[in-house]
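> tool_call: predict_assembly(chains=two)
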Amino acid sequence: MMEHNTTVDRIAAGLGGGLVLLGVVVLGLVETLAGKPYGAAPLTNDAGEVIATPLIDPTLRTGLVLAGLAVLALYALYRIATPEPATEDDAPAEVVAD
Amino acid sequence: MAYRAADPTANEFDLAPQGAWTAYWLAILRVVTGWWFFHAGVTKLIEDGLAYTYGPAYLQQMTGTALGPIPVWMGEHLGWAIQALVPLGETFIGLALMAGALVRLAAAGGAFFMTLFWVGNAEFGHGLVNADLMGLLLFLTMIVLATGRYYGLDAIIEKTEFVRKRPKLRYLLG
């Protein structure tokens, strides 16, 4: 398996994926262990009254996931904007005059 | 897709050698999919233990589906097992995917669950292609691409002597 080679690659991979997994898995585990409600939605009774709210605001969790995806998107833009290193294939071909 | 004739354990589903970002993204997808099922299962265990009575009830209302009488029969005759197997199954499928161990086997279980959810929930208001079908396809993708081989325990397990001598186990690992 190929590895991420450059520092930028590693930062993008670590930060991007880290934020996604933090928002979904890590804080999800914290929310579950904190008791009801076990998920990101408030708990209501039959009358529709809220009887328990999440420990962690879902706005924060979704924000972290979106931030992670934004990091990966920025990395993609960086890759698009960065010129490829020249290879042997890039040598200009000779054009024969008519 | 790489096919390495020199490697008797390789098969047509083998992805290696592959780019770093592909492996990375498959691992992220695997862990998030695993968390999805783990959370669904573990919260049922916390709330109802091994007596998840909604499981058999859900199956019993699955009349007139593409699965014919199978779900209703399961709900009526296997209720005692389903009450325990739904929370346990979801929990262990989720754990397996997050750890990347026995991914293909676990994902097959996930695909089985999602088939019942897709057909049983019947939320086709916006078409047949809905979130349940996407979940089903996610599990199938885990199987086809053997995602446990990327930042998962299956990458280590498949290198053991035990598995090397029994290459068909790679159809359950990966």
